[in-house]
Structures are given as C-alpha cells and as structure tokens.
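sorry for the late reply, my laptop died twice this morning and i had to redo everyting from scratch. anyway the thing you sent over, i finally got around to it. pasting the sequence first so we're on the same page, its 590 residues, then the predicted structure underneath. double check i copied it right bc i was rushing
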Amino acid sequence: MTGTQRVRTTPAVQATRTGRRVLVIGGGPAGLTAAMELAERGFSVTVVEARALGGKARSIPVLGTGRDGRRDLPGEHGFRFFPGFYRNVTETMARIPSPGGGTPGRTVADRLVATSEVLYARDGGRDGVVVDISGTPGTRTVEATLRATGRLLARTPGLSAEESAHFANRLLVFATSGTARHDGEFENTSWWDFTAGATASEEYRRLCVIGPTRTLVAAKAEVASVASIGRAQVEFWSGLLGGTGHAEADRVLDAPTTEAWIGPWADHLLGLGVRFLVGHRVTRLLTARGAVRAAAVRTPSGALREIEADWFVCAVPAEAAVRTLGPEVCELDESLAGMDRLETDWMTGVQFFLREPTPLVRGHVIHVDSPWALTSIAQAQFWSGVDFPERYGDGTVRDCLSVDVSAWDVPGPLTGKPARACTRGEALREVWHQLADSLRLDGRDLLSPDPDLVHSCFTDPAIDWPTERGALARNREPLLISTAGSRRWRPQPAGRVPNLFQAGDHVDVDLNLATMEAADQSAKAAVNALLATAGVRAPECVVHGRPRPAELARLHRLDDELYAAGLPNAFDRQAPWARDGAATRAPTPR
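ok and here's the structure:
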C-alpha cells in the first residue's frame, strides 16, 4: 500500500464533484492528518473534537501553575518518541510550517532531535548500562552496533550466550519470513510465545522480551502479536545496523508536543480552511438510504445539533468507535461492531517537575527491574532554546522527568498494592521509589536524595483515582493493544457504508500498533479510499508500508513456499532451554 505521487501543500487541487463537505470525527493525529490531506485537495473540512486537539499526543497544561506571565507547566499523557523507522508521520510533519526559530522554511520535522543513548537501569544497588545508539544509518556501522550490544551483554551476567543467540535468531526468522507467514502464523502468535519467554530466565524476559517491547512500541510482549512487535523490533535493529530508509534510531521533539507540533499543525490547517469544533462530541451518526447523512453532536453547552456532510471520517480511538458510530451505522455494516472486541490496557504517564536540571542520560531509560515497568526521559535537555524557569510555572522549575507506567496490575514494593488500587499520592510515591531504586550509574545515584528536588507532579487527567477503600482507578483514555489474532476485528479504511471511512491506530493497515505512525498511515489510507469513491482526480496520499529489502526477496519467496508446505522458516530453531514445549530449568527468581 505505497503511493507513488506527492501532494502539493496548497489547496490548489479541487474536487471534481459538488459533494466536497467532509466531517472528520476526532482531532488526534489520525483526524488531523485526514483533515490536512483532504483540505490540500480542495475539500471543505470540519473537525469535531470532544476534548482537545492532538488526542493522546497533546501536551496537557497543568492549570493554574503559571505565574507572572509564564505558561502553565507542560503535562502529557506520556512522552513522545519517534523511532527512526517512522516515515509516514514524519513526512506529514515535514509539510507543516514551524514559524520562528530563525530558519526560513523550517518545518515541524526540523524540530525532531536525535537522542544518543539508552540506559538499561537496574535495581538493588546495581549499576545500569548505557548503550550508544548515536549516528544515522549513513554513519553508523555494524561494528558500532555490535560493540554497543556486546557491552550490554558483558555487563549482564545473568543473560546467557544461548539466550542472546536465540533472541537474535527470533529477529532473523521474522526478517526472512514472507507475507504468508506474517499474515497467518505471526498474526496469531504472541511475541511471548515466539520468543519462548515463558520458559526462559527472568533476565532474558526483562532485557530481550519485555523491556524493548514496552519502549519501542508501548505494547505488552505477553499478549501482543508477533506481526506487530516483530516489525518494530526488526526495523529498529535494521536502523542501528546501518539499514537504508531510516533516520536516527530515537528522536524526540525540541519542546512540549503542542508547542512544537500540534499547535503549528492546527494553525496550518486553519490556513487551509479547516474548521474546528473543539469541545463538541459526536453522539452517533444518522443514516438515510444506506449512507450517513449527518452527525448528532452535543455542543459544549449541552445542546444537540445535527451536522450534515457528504463524507465522514471516523478517527476516534478504538474504545469509543462503536459508540460514536451508533446503531444505525453498525446495522448497515455489521463488521464495524467488531471494534468493541479489540482490547485496550493501561499505559500512561507521570511527570515530575524538578527544581534542578536532572539529565539522567542523553535519551530514554528502561527501568528493567521496576515492578510497574517504568520507562522515563529527562526532557528539558532536549528543549533547545527553551529557558524552562523563564517560560513555565513559578520560575523555580528547571526540568521535567517524564515517566511511562505500563504495569498497573502488579503490586508495588512500598504499598504492596497495584497501581490501579493506589490513591494518587500512593502511586506517585511508588513511582518515585522505583525510579530512585534503579537510577545508578558508575557507582553514583542519578537522582538527588534532596527532598526538595521535586517541585510538583502531574498525572493524566483521564485517570479517575480511587477515593474509597477497595476501589480501583479508572482510565478514560486507555491504549489499544495488538493482541494475537485481533486483526480480524480491525476495520478497513473503507467499509460497506459508501460515504464513511475509518482512521486511527486500530484500523487494519500495514502497521498494526498503537502508534502515531499507524494513526497517520490509516488516515492517508482512508483519504485514498475516499478519493477513489468520490471519483476525485487528485494525487493519492503517499503511504509507506513495510519495507521489502531487495536483498531478502529470495528468502521471502522461499519462506512463502515453506509456509505453504506447512514447514517452518529455514532459520527457525527451538529455544535451546526448551524441550517438547517444557522448561528445562526454572526461571531465575527475583
């Protein structure tokens, strides 16, 4: 699903029919991408967004924290991360002007900053290990990557050579497998089973199976499909090994997300004539003669109104899609009701605003042993040109340590309770304890013990924390998880309702992962389907699919033949520690 034409960045291409009104439901990355592509092709676009533009990717101001003309402190759902294999979303960013900065023609994509390190942090007083991921594919060599990997392995005595070799074999098998195996076997197998995590050592699970999965794609290795996780893993390593078509391995924005990306994007769309209705919620779609005729919308005042359009793009998250579409649409296209069977889980963030700069390492931190599966990044070091105390808060905050919490159902060492059963205060103390317990490098603690270091904390407002004993927290904005076999419940960009199209990271496109990249890819696929249905003579959106390296083409053809014959991949090997599907040794205790 790869386009061949690029689109001009002005609304010069006009639709060839009179039906040019489009209602985009949802103002996250998928909805904004669809709006941009359609507006550039001469459509009249209205975006209806219930909360705030940017969706889960937006910055969330900590209201009331700004003093003396400063902005409110920048909270967020979780830190933004742009791996080098993201091509669709970054090419969209390259078409969004970024005013200021002293560089004519600067775009939002120019505001991406490469990190250079990953810290594998350990608990129990052990030193962490820093892995160098610097350089672009044009400058990085296989030798540099192997040396960095070798240093990690040498500092991890609990990980055996056979385990390291088996994980490398898993990546090799995925990279050399053909489309048939990807769509069949890998779609219906969990990454946990594929990597033999259940029967391996605890160290293997944490370092090879679970840790990188959470960091790269915000997914859970235990249930996510091989088709989803394998691609991200292989593409990440391909970039580190100097593969073509990749940028730097890990990039972040040079300012809070809304300042660097969402804000300039909204301004650009306004310039293209896009209309925004923020604070409006679509309650259901209304149909007539087998098509959608209007959306029933609740305004900020609580009033109901109908908005008519010729075309509709539903770009709300998976957990809200069926409710938003409503019973009339699901009766016309019964397959859409399957979206309710897609699974979501918790992965959301905490921001600690610090009174002193605390650049842990020049990149992300994987807290390998943390019970709540933490990942973190000290953000201010990447916000070039931003004087933190001058711009935000009360003038005393100098850094933002942003932490993603992935395991909400595992007891913590301080309270003995899982995160979902904690009060907000208990959860914050637990997260800080797990951070401090694991941030050690070269014999020194990376977090200061000064109790005044933390100015304040922010948690996602979508979390409703428990106030009564025995109650559990509720998350109104969970994250989609690509469980094995879930592809059959994913909608296509175009379905049976002729003027309705689906966009979002839950749509069945090439990258089936809860990522900004999948959201962007799905939106462009939806626009291409709309153009084809409308008969509009305009360039298709360029959509980059899964890379097909020419040097692996013969191996892919061979694997298609092996799969058709019911045989494994030519490189497939059973885990050396497993025999007849049973463990030959017990996992290493914590």
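The chain has three domains: 21-51+279-343+486-534, 60-88+105-115+250-254+347-475, 148-246.
thats about all i looked at so far, will dig more tmrw
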